[in-house]
Amino acid sequence: MTAVACGIDWAQDHHDVALVDTNGVVVSSARISNNAAGLSQVLAMLAEHDPEGGKLPVAIETSQGLLVAGLRSADRQVFAINPLAVSRYRDRYRSSRGKSDAFDAMVLANILRTDVEAHRPLPQDSELLKSLRVLTRAQQDAAWDQVTITNRIRTVLRMFFPAALEAFERGGRHRLDSPTARIVLAAASTPAAAAALTVDDLASMLRTAGRQRGITAEADKLHSLLGSEQMRQPAAVEDAMGLQLQGLVRQLDAVCQTLEQLEHRIDDVFTAHSDAKIMTSVPGLGVQLGARLLAEIGDDRSRFADARALRAFAGAAPVTRASGKSSFVHARRAKNDRIAATGYVWALAAVRHDPHWNARYRARRQAGDRHVAALRRLFHLMLGKLHHCLQHGTIYDPTRAFTNLAGNPA
Predict the structure, then answer these.
(1) Cys bridge to 347: 35, 341, 373, 378, which one at CB 3.0-4.6 A?
(2) Closest to 101 measured CA to CA, from 9, 7, 5, 6
(3) Would 76 be classed as within a structural domain?
(4) CA 397: distance to chain centroid?
(5) Contacts of 348 by beta carbon, 8 Å cutoff, 6+ apart
(6) pLDDT tier for residue 173 given thresholds of 50, 70 and 90
(7) Do 22 and 4 meet the contact criterion of CB atoms below 8 Å apart?
(8) Across the strands, what pairs with 80?
(9) Which has more confidence, 238 or 1?
(10) What pTM value is reported for the model?
(11) Reduced to 3 states, what is the DSSP secondary structure of residue 189?
(12) How many CB atoms lie within 10 A of CB 323?
């Protein structure tokens, strides 16, 4: 019997598959294992009930994983359905709110049977772009981890070793995540150990961290700050907190090294992509920021029908809630958080380095917008211009992008 849609409810060790016909009746179902044999089984089911070959769409609640990769490698059109949307559809078929894996697979299949136009298939990005996305997301996660661990180190130091904060943040030129701070704190994780360091020891550490000039003066300064008189915890408590600090420093060191490796790899992969020149031609976008943005947007030109769709995906388009005489406009919460996090940095960099965007920012501030609101409006406009450049394969041209700057501050 011919099927019109397939739904897969995925789990860690198995997946439930359901195929439905034009009336929503399940014509085939199975529970497959999460391995190559399971993938072969579901592909055989699709081939059996898909006489046209490759036309039967597949709905699943994730866009990642080996099963999705296998289906896409077999040229199957895969739709990643938001689990929140699936929960809404579930009430349509069972008011008792009962659920099971096989039932959810049937619901997913019926979503495509009835409302396939309301959902988007996964984009057909190139293999190079997919690898870039893995790298940039790993880099962004590592950067967030770096901030988290650094904050934890700062908290620990404030509790038992404030002289280190004075030396590396307030009184020195080194951040806590700098190579110098990591090397010194790894060797002297307690006030007692820091006080035992000589100027020559600190000078050697500065050289190891890559310092080439002013080593003696900087070593003298660190020696004075780290050996200054301060309040102390009891010896046993101080040793315990020093051990805790050493563990955090090792974590931070590993994250910083990973970030450095990822940045070099991202540079190579991004510059090899055909869209790299377009991305870096836009003000505020360098290699790392441009790579992060391109990885999330993708290189499938059919993914976003217009700039409005891209803005909604990035969270740059506001949402209006209107009922009767009331109307409320607020920021979009359902969005790609990675692009949204990049957007603020991008807009700020463009304002600082490009006179056209700086003038647009000043115009918005004079119109009454606060700093963040002005940057959000700029991000909204910048995405539209970037979308135009990517769709037409053209380099960013400020003379065409700002033809109406004097007459329209919006």
Answers:
(1) 378
(2) 9
(3) yes
(4) 28
(5) 284, 375
(6) low
(7) yes
(8) 60
(9) 238
(10) 0.87
(11) coil
(12) 7
Give yes or no: residues 82 and 32 share one domain.
yes
The one-character DSSP state at 169 is I
How far apart, in Å, are the Cα atoms of 246 and each of 67, 219, 253? 41, 21, 10
d(CA 129, CA 350): 25
* Amino acid at position 257, single letter: Q
Q: What angle, 0 to 180 degrees and rounded to 10, lies between the N-to-C axes of helices 127-160 and 287-297?
A: 120
Query: How many other C-beta atoms lie within 10 A of the C-beta of residue 271?
Result: 13
The confidence score (pLDDT) of residue 96 equals 79
Maximum Cα–Cα distance for the chain, whole Å?
84
pLDDT (tens digit per residue) in 201-220: 999 999 999 989 999 999 99
User: Are 282 and 212 in a shared domain?
Assistant: no
DSSP string, 49-97: T-TTSS-S-EEES-S-SHHHHHHHHTT--EEE--HHHHHHHHHHH-TT-
Co-location of 240 and 341 in the same domain: no
Q: Which of residues 216, 234, 268 is at a domain's end?
A: 268
Together in a domain, 68 and 152: no
Cα→Cα distances 207→70, 167, 178, 201, 202, Å: 50, 17, 13, 10, 9
